[in-house]
């Protein structure tokens, strides 16, 4: 281990179009948010690994010797991009997780232990360390909290192992890794997502790693450079849901009704492509009413498709109805089933209109915030570049 202490952050994301369809090889457009997950890793000499996850009220530690025994007779298969089922099985037994359990706390800890043991499997000794992760993102609400969590873990453990650099030099507040290093971070974060999600497309971890606005198609990541600044209202319906369960429900529906569902997925693909084209036109021609009319139509069409896929929820219907009454168009974002939705605001939308809509949404029990899109991907921080509030949470465990 090089530095005794490191701080890392990674952003959440919003999917503009293509959630669920992207799992089945269609195009998705996704954008990073200015809400982030923060991680502090501290090298210790306690002979233990400690994990503190205050967002999910989970605080655990293990003796290094117990973790070491999990590696006996196990050989990492570095050639495969699949999860190592043998290691997952050992960890499930170690943590006494019953088969088929999707208990959220267990999945987060399982993801941590999986990445820790895999990254340090060929090290001479397993290091003693303490990790604390805390997020500004609501967990399990469609804003990519699982991906931001996995990206932070992956970056922290790879840099603690020395597999990637620790690029922060003196006096710098934040630093980014090289493209090759980001690819490695993304690869291990994807494994974390597989543990938490089941069958992720990889779009969420890609946005959290690279930041900005991305087109994601069958593992191909294309940053979109010609994108206008969009005003988006985010609403959290606060209805809990599990991405893993929703993704597998859509798969069941496709298997049951392939000829019905395939055209729906194709249409979502066309929506994503039409949106990409409109955003490019807006950036080159200047945004006009015509462009916003198209973006609003695409939002409405996609929201209907997501309902057909079975990932809508009455809370999301309320969001769409309330905002439409104020002339605003909304759709769910992420896996749906509750969680968060996005509402497009036009440049000329009066603050009073937004305030009136927000007031009604709050009365329905929802939480809203206007957000800026396209923040930086995973970052290494100096401690003084992290706000005092976040720092005091990360250092209090
Ligand atoms: N800050 C965190 N601390 C610990 N675990 C976390 C944290 N953030 C996310 N997780 C893990 O990720 C799970 C939520 O992942 P899930 O994929 O269901 O939702 P999401 O990522 O917020 O939404 P979506 O996948 O639709 O964007 C949590 O239950 C937990 O296991
Ligand atoms: C629902 C989904 O498409 C997006 C979740 O943010 C799942 C995935 O792509 O992994
Ligand atoms: Mg997720």
Q: Helical proportion?
A: 40-55%
Largest sheet: 9 strands, mixed
CATH topology-level fold name of the largest domain:
Ribosomal Protein S5, domain 2
Annotation, overall tally of beta strands: 13
Query: pLDDT below 50 for ≥5 consecutive residues: which ranges?
Result: none
Content-based structural category = alpha+beta
Pattern of helices and strands: EEEEHHHEHEHHEEEHHHHEEHEEH
**Head-to-tail CA distance between termini:** 21 Å
Given the C-alpha coordinates, what overall shape results? globular
Bound ligand species: adenosine-5'-triphosphate, (R)-mevalonate, magnesium ion
Mean pLDDT: 95
**Strand composition percent:** 15-25%
Question: Which terms summarize this structure?
Answer:
single chain; 397 residues; alpha+beta; Ribosomal Protein S5, domain 2; 2 domains; nine-stranded mixed β-sheet; four-stranded antiparallel β-sheet; binds adenosine-5'-triphosphate; binds (R)-mevalonate; binds magnesium ion; mevalonate kinase activity; sterol biosynthesis; metal ion binding
Provide a brief overview of the structure.
The chain is α+β, with helices and mostly antiparallel strands and 397 residues long.
């Amino acid at each position: 281990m090089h530095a005794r202490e490191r701080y890392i952050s990674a952003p959440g994301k919003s999917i503009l179009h293509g959630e669920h369809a992207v799992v089945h090889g269609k195009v998705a457009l996704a954008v990073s948010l200015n809400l982030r997950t923060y991680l502090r890793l501290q090298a210790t000499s306690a002979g233990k690994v400690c994990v503190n996850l205050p967002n999910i009220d989970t605080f655990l530690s293990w003796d290094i010797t117990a973790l070491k025994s999990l590696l006996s007779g196990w050989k990492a298969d570095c050639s495969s991009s699949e999860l190592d089922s043998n290691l997952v099985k050992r960890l499930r037994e170690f943590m006494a997780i019953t088969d088929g359990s999707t208990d959220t706390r267990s999945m987060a800890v399982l993801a941590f232990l999986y990445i820790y043991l895999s990254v340090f499997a060929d090290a001479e000794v397993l290091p003693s360390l303490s990790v604390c992760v805390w997020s500004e993102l609501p967990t399990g609400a469609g804003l990519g909290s699982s991906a931001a969590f996995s990206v932070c873990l992956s970056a922290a453990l790879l840099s603690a192992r020395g597999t990637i650099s620790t690029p922060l030099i003196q006096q710098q507040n934040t630093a980014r890794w090289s493209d090759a290093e980001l690819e490695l971070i993304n690869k291990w974060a994807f494994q974390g997502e597989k543990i938490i999600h089941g069958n992720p497309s990889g779009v969420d971890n890609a946005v959290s790693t690279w930041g900005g606005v991305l087109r994601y198609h069958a593992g191909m990541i294309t940053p979109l450079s010609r994108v206008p600044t969009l005003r988006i209202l985010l609403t959290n319906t606060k209805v809990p849901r599990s991405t893993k369960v929703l993704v597998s429900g859509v798969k069941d529906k496709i298997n049951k009704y392939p000829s019905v569902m395939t055209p729906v997925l194709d249409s979502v693909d066309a929506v994503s492509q039409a949106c990409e084209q409109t955003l490019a036109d807006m950036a080159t021609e200047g945004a006009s009413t015509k462009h916003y009319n198209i973006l609003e139509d695409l939002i409405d069409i996609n929201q209907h498709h997501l309902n057909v896929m079975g990932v809508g929820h009455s809370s999301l219907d309320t969001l769409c109805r309330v905002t439409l009454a104020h002339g605003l168009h909304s759709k769910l974002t992420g896996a749906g089933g509750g969680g968060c939705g996005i509402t497009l605001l036009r440049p000329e939308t009066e603050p009073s209109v937004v305030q009136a809509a927000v007031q009604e949404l709050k009365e329905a029990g929802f939480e809203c915030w206007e957000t800026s899109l396209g923040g930086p991907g995973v970052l290494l921080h100096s401690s003084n570049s992290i706000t005092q509030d976040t720092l005091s949470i990360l250092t209090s465990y």
